[in-house]
Design a protein that fits this description.
2 copies of one chain form a homodimer. Chain A is an alpha/beta fold and about 270 residues long. Chain A has 2 domains: about 110 residues, Rossmann fold (3-Layer(aba) Sandwich); about 110 residues, Rossmann fold (3-Layer(aba) Sandwich). Helix content of chain A is about 35%, strand content about 20%. Chain A has 10 helices and 15 strands. A 6-stranded parallel sheet of chain A has the order 5-4-1-13-14-15, with helices on both faces. Chain A has a 5-stranded parallel sheet with strand order 7-6-8-9-12, sandwiched between helices. Chain A has a two-stranded antiparallel sheet with strand order 2-3. In chain A, β4, α2 and β5 form a beta-alpha-beta unit. The longest helix of chain A has 12 residues. The interface between A and B is medium-sized, with 34 and 35 residues.
């Protein structure tokens, strides 16, 4: 049986590319699907770079892409907060792109409270909510500010909850580290995680595709995020073995993905 | 029945003093016990200041104290590592006093790997073990260095695991935040926590008192650390209500402390 699919949602790292190199079959796969008039969008949990930057990278690798077809966890959180709580004053543990993205949705981001000694009880003046993201400039001042705000009832959001971000040579601590620290010491739980495996990011991907979930497929390299999320959204799913998942990992699943692909080159032959 | 006790182990913050002020009855209590030729020692989980500094503070507040009668989590960890694993090269997430304390036990502390970009996969050259402590200069470089070392099998120790450190006006994030972050993202568990409620710190306190546990009492303001630890060590216990514990908290306990004291002023009348 060949699956009939009209819209494809691709994970990026480990699925389409690794570092600065397109993975085997990726360029041809996406070109073939587009020639068949299929729709393609790309999702990433990384709140470090703009959609323009991701689109430019894909285009450079041979996959011409419109920035509107790239969906980051930062975009998803920005849209979510603009829709549900636009009045909140946000304290962001994150990098400059995330702040710019949130402000582009009309949201208010509070500056660092640099007049206060980070070794004291920082008074979280004017902070209604804490946003935690991947932040390679995390420091004690930020942790203390978020802690004080959360202990005084601030709301608690995150772009993503990944433990570590894959990098050349390994991985480095991601937003999951900061979330775990703050949850442990405050006894609070993060209310909403915008990125994978949240259904929020799938909703926005499907909205961009303009298709019902049943006609779409999620393709990624991670079973616990990409595949779990696609299934939860009611989409078909395909795992590619070019990233963190091995064939024996798939064999263990009670509810396996629809397709298991050595690489993206196999995808066009398995769908119509 | 009056308890016969020869050695007293006092918690400091919330028991003997709060900030820079002796708590009611503390000065008279300790003077009275010493006039009866009782032995007194003081324990603190805070790895921020030297035993000399704590002794000087107690002396200034009217409780003349020898630095050797002050036992910090840093001292306990230093002695433990010097005894069990003196050859380890330690990477310390902590402040300068802790590094000095560890080095004073003949241990090797590795310098920060400042030649490496903290946004990359830091190569944890020459690190055999990670030591986590209260550190108000925590940053992403330190988190990343510890993460890489732990992922490559480094041993994992902590001075203390407190969630937050009480301060004028509230509390600030303590070592518990960093431990939670690293445990979550590495899947590792800290092997040894030197400070309360570990029995290690009680062993060293009893060694200093030179008395068997059955003739000693632990006095503190926290049920889950001070009192739990005293009981586990086989000591008598007394909770003082000058810190974080309220009388109704004690009423809930299946195994309550031997004494519940409004303040230390009541202690000499309740023991002999």
């Amino acid at each position: 049986m060949t699956l009939h699919i009209d819209g494809f949602v691709f994970d990026l790292d480990g699925t389409v590319y690794l570092g600065d190199t397109a993975l085997p079959g990726a360029v041809e796969c996406i070109a073939t699907l587009r020639r068949r008039n299929k729709r393609t969008v790309f999702v990433s949990n990384k709140p470090l770079e703009s959609r323009q930057a991701y689109a430019a990278k894909l285009t450079r690798l041979g996959i011409p892409t419109d920035p509107d077809d790239v969906i980051t966890s930062a975009l998803v959180l920005g849209r979510y907060l603009a829709r549900t709580a636009p009045q909140l004053h946000l304290y962001v543990i994150g990098e400059p792109y995330l702040v710019a993205e949130l402000r582009s949705h009309g949201l208010t981001v509070v500056d660092e409270l640099l007049d206060q000694d980070p070794r004291e009880v920082i008074q979280p003046r004017g902070i209604d909510a804490v946003v935690v993201a991947f932040d390679r400039t995390l420091d004690y001042r930020k942790l203390n500010t978020a802690y004080q705000a959360l202990m005084r009832g601030a709301r608690f959001f995150a772009t993503n909850a990944d433990k570590a971000c894959p990098m050349p040579g390994g991985a480095i601590p991601d937003a999951g580290a900061t979330i775990a620290a703050l949850e442990h010491i405050t006894g609070r739980k993060v209310e909403v995680v915008a990125g994978k495996p949240s259904t929020l990011i799938m909703e926005i991907a499907l909205e961009r595709l303009g298709l019902p979930a049943a006609r779409c497929m999620m393709i990624g390299d991670r079973l616990e995020t990409d595949i779990a999320m696609g299934k939860q959204a009611g989409m078909a799913t395909a795992v590619v073995l070019t990233g963190v998942t091995k064939r024996e990992d798939v064999a263990r699943l009670a509810s396996p993905p629809d397709l298991v692909l050595e690489n993206l080159g196999e995808l066009p032959g398995r769908v119509e």
